[in-house]
Structure to design on (693 residues):
C-alpha cells in the first residue's frame, strides 16, 4: 500500500511512496503528530539521483521489520533536498557539527519542535567497517529519547545555539570596513591560492574526487581578462580540456556527469545534474570567446544540445537530473564492451573508434569501458595519419550509431521537476550562447523558458521554487529570485525586449525586500515571510551551485550599473565588505562572490543600441556586442521612444535609418557606430594582452 508520499510530485518522494515506512512529507501534519504524541522525528533527506539514497532505501526502508520499528517509535519525514534547500541547509549543518562530515542520504533525529540532537548519513543494514547498523542507531536513539530525555534536550539546545552562532559569525573585515577596503589584492591572492592546489597534469584542483567547480573557473577567466594573467587562463584551459576528453563527459549524448572519482576525470559518479551542465556550458562558452578554440565551442554546444534534447519538457521547463543507476546498477547505461562496439560499427570502423576512445577487452571500469579521449583530436589524427576534419567526420557517424544503439537500453530515471534557480543557470547560458554563436534555437529556448517560469511559477505575484505535473509550490528562495533575475537581465541584453528588463528589475527589488538583513549586512536564503523553522538559513559559500548571496550581489551590481540606482548597489557592497576577509582566507569557496567583486572593481563597458524596430540589422549589432568576452559589459537600448529614464540613455539618439550604437567607458563615449564590424572592432580593444600561459 502507498504511504502519504504518493500524493507528492517530487520524484524522490515518489520513489519512497511504497515503502512500508509510514513516511510523511515535511509539513504541519507530521510536526503536529510529533508534538501531540511526544515522539522524536526521523528526518531523511536526499534527492532522486542519489546513489546511496537508493541503496539505503533497498536495504533499510523496504525492510518490514525496520519499518515497523520506525513507525512505532518515530514520526518519519522524507524531504527532497532540491525542493527544500532551507531544511537541507539547517540539518546538514547540524549533522556536520555532530559527526564532522555530511552527505546524502542525510539522517537526522529531531525533537518534536524541530531541534536536531543526533544524526548521520548512510547507515548500513548490518554493522560493518566500524559503523553501527541502522537498526542499532534507531534503538539507541529511541532509548535515549525515552530514558535520558534531559540529556537529549540539553544536547538539542546546545546544538541549536552552536548553529545559530555559526550562522551569525561570518568572519568580516575590520570594524568600520567599507567598499573602499575591497581591493584587487583579494583576487590576486585567490589566483595564487588556486595555483597552489592546481593539478598541472590533469587539471582541476586538489586530489580525487574531482568536481568541475565552474564558479572557480569563472573567477580565473575574469582575472585573465582583468590582468592578462596567463597562469589563470592556463589553469582553466587545462581543466576544461581534461574534463572534455575524460569519462566525466558523455561523449555520445553530450553533457557532464556529476564528478570524477579519480584524479584524471576518467571514472565519473554517473548522475547528470541540470545545474552542472548549465554552469559548465557557460564556462566553456566564455573560454571559447577568449581562445576561439573550436573544441571548447563544440563542448559548449553539445552540452546545451543535450539539455534541449533530454532535459527539456514540452512546456519549456528544464528537468532536474538523470539518475546514476539503471537496471539497479550504477553507470550501466553508459558502459561498453569491445564486442558491442565492433558489432555496431563493424571491424574496421570499430577498430578506429576503439583506438580513439580507449576501448579494450579488459576495459577501464569493472571489465567494461568508459569512453574517453586520451589525447586531443589533432594528436589523435596525426597518430592515425588522417586529417583532423576527416577523423572527426568518421567519429561523428560512429558516435551517432552507438548513441542510437544505447537508446534501446533501459535509461536512468529522469527527475522531471523544474527548479527555478537551476533553470536560470541554463536560461542564462542559452541566451549568451544564442547571441555569441548565432544560434536562434538557443534564443528561442531561452525565451520560452523565461516565459514559462514567469507565467507558471508565480502565484499572486510571488515566485515559487518548484513545478511538476502542472503543480507549482514552495515559496522561492534567494537563489531562485537572484538567479532568475540575472538570467532575465542577460536575456534582455541579448534581445533588448523590454519584458525581460522589467521582470529582472522587479526581482532585484524583491531580493532586497524579502532577503536583505540591514542590521547584519547580509542576505538570508529564506524569505522573511517564509515558514518559521528552528533558524533562518544562510549559506555564504558556493556549494555545487552559486550561493544565494553571491547571485544577489551580482544581480544588484548589474542592475545598478544599468539603471543608475545606487540604493541597489549599497547592500551588494556591504555584503562584499562583510565577507571580504572570509573570501581572502577561503577563495575556492567563493568563486561567484569573487566574480561579483570584479563588477565593483572594474568600470563596465556600456553598449547602448538604439533602433526603431528590430530586424536582422539589430540582431547583427547585438551579436557583435556580445561576441568578445567582456564579463563587465552592460548592453541596453531599444526603441528610443520607449526607453526607461536611465542615465545610460540620456543624450543618446539614433542616427539614420538603421541601429546606432554607443560604446562608453568611464564616462567617455565613442562616436556613433552603425556597422556591426565597427562595433566589434571597438569592443575588441578591451581584450587582455596576456597569453594562454
Amino acid at each position: 500500500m502507498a504511504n502519504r508520499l504518493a500524493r507528492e510530485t517530487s520524484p524522490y518522494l515518489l520513489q519512497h511512496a511504497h515503502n512500508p515506512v509510514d513516511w510523511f512529507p515535511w509539513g504541519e501534519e507530521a510536526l503536529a503528530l510529533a508534538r501531540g504524541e511526544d515522539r522524536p522525528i526521523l528526518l531523511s533527506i536526499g534527492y532522486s539521483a542519489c546513489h546511496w539514497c537508493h541503496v539505503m532505501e533497498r536495504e533499510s526502508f523496504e525492510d518490514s521489520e525496520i519499518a515497523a520499528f520506525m513507525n512505532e517509535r518515530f514520526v518519519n519525514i522524507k524531504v527532497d533536498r532540491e525542493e527544500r534547500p532551507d531544511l537541507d541547509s539547517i540539518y546538514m549543518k547540524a549533522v556536520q557539527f555532530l559527526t564532522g562530515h555530511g552527505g546524502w542520504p542525510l539522517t537526522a533525529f529531531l525533537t518534536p519542535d524541530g531541534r536536531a540532537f543526533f544524526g548521520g548519513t548512510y547507515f548500513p543494514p548490518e554493522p560493518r567497517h566500524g559503523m553501527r547498523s541502522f537498526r542499532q542507531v534507531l534503538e539507541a536513539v529511541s532509548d535515549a529519547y525515552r530514558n535520558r530525555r534531559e540529556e537529549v534536550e540539553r544536547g538539542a539546545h546546545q546544538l541549536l545555539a552552536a548553529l545559530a552562532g555559526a550562522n551569525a559569525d561570518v568572519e568580516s573585515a575590520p570594524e568600520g570596513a567599507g567598499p573602499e577596503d575591497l581591493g584587487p589584492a583579494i583576487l590576486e591572492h585567490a589566483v595564487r591560492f588556486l595555483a597552489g592546489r592546481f593539478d598541472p597534469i590533469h587539471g582541476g584542483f586538489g586530489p580525487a574526487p574531482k568536481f568541475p567547480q565552474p564558479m572557480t573557473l569563472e573567477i580565473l577567466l575574469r582575472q585573465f581578462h582583468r590582468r592578462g594573467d596567463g597562469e589563470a587562463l592556463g589553469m582553466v584551459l587545462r581543466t576544461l580540456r581534461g574534463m572534455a576528453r575524460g569519462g566525466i563527459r558523455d561523449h555520445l549524448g553530450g553533457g557532464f556527469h556529476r564528478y570524477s572519482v579519480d584524479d584524471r576525470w576518467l571514472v565519473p559518479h554517473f548522475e547528470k545534474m541540470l545545474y552542472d551542465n548549465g554552469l559548465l556550458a557557460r564556462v566553456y562558452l566564455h573560454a571559447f570567446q577568449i581562445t576561439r578554440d573550436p573544441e571548447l565551442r563544440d563542448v559548449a554546444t553539445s552540452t546545451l544540445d543535450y539539455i534541449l534534447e533530454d532535459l527539456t519538457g514540452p512546456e519549456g521547463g528544464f528537468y532536474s537530473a538523470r539518475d546514476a543507476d539503471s537496471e539497479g546498477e550504477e553507470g550501466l547505461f553508459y558502459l561498453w564492451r569491445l564486442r558491442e562496439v565492433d558489432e555496431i560499427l563493424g571491424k574496421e570502423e570499430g577498430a578506429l573508434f576503439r583506438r580513439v576512445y580507449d576501448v579494450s577487452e579488459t576495459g577501464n571500469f569493472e571489465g567494461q569501458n568508459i569512453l574517453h579521449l586520451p589525447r586531443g583530436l589533432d594528436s589523435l589524427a596525426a597518430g592515425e595519419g588522417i586529417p583532423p576534419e576527416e577523423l572527426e567526420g568518421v567519429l561523428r557517424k560512429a558516435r551517432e550509431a552507438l548513441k542510437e544503439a544505447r537508446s534501446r537500453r533501459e535509461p536512468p530515471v529522469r527527475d522531471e521537476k523544474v527548479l527555478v534557480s537551476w533553470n536560470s543557470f541554463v536560461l542564462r547560458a542559452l541566451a549568451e550562447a544564442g547571441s555569441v554563436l548565432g544560434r536562434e534555437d538557443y534564443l528561442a529556448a531561452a525565451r520560452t523558458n523565461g516565459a514559462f517560469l514567469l507565467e507558471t511559477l508565480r502565484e499572486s505575484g510571488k515566485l515559487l521554487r518548484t513545478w511538476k505535473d502542472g503543480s507549482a509550490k514552495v515559496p522561492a528562495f534567494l537563489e531562485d529570485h537572484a538567479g532568475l533575475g540575472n538570467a532575465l537581465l542577460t536575456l534582455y541584453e541579448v534581445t533588448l525586449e523590454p519584458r525581460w528588463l522589467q521582470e529582472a528589475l522587479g526581482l532585484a527589488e524583491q531580493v532586497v525586500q524579502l532577503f536583505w538583513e540591514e542590521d547584519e549586512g547580509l542576505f538570508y536564503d529564506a524569505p522573511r515571510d517564509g515558514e518559521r523553522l528552528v533558524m533562518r538559513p544562510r549559506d555564504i559559500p558556493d556549494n555545487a551551485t552559486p550561493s544565494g548571496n553571491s547571485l544577489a550581489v551580482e544581480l544588484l551590481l548589474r542592475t545598478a550599473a544599468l539603471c543608475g540606482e545606487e540604493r541597489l548597489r549599497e547592500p551588494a557592497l556591504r555584503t562584499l565588505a562583510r565577507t571580504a576577509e572570509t573570501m581572502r582566507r577561503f577563495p575556492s569557496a567563493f568563486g561567484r562572490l569573487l566574480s561579483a567583486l570584479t563588477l565593483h572593481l572594474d568600470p563596465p563597458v556600456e553598449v547602448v543600441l538604439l533602433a526603431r524596430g528590430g530586424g536582422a540589422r539589430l540582431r547583427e549589432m547585438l551579436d557583435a556586442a556580445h561576441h568578445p568576452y567582456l564579463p563587465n559589459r552592460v548592453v541596453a537600448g531599444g526603441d528610443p521612444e520607449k526607453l526607461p529614464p536611465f542615465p545610460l540613455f540620456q543624450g543618446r539618439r539614433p542616427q539614420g535609418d538603421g541601429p546606432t550604437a554607443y560604446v562608453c567607458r568611464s564616462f567617455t563615449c565613442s562616436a556613433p557606430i552603425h556597422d556591426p564590424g565597427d562595433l566589434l572592432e571597438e569592443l575588441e580593444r578591451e581584450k587582455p594582452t596576456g597569453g594562454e600561459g
Observations:
- The mean pLDDT is 94.
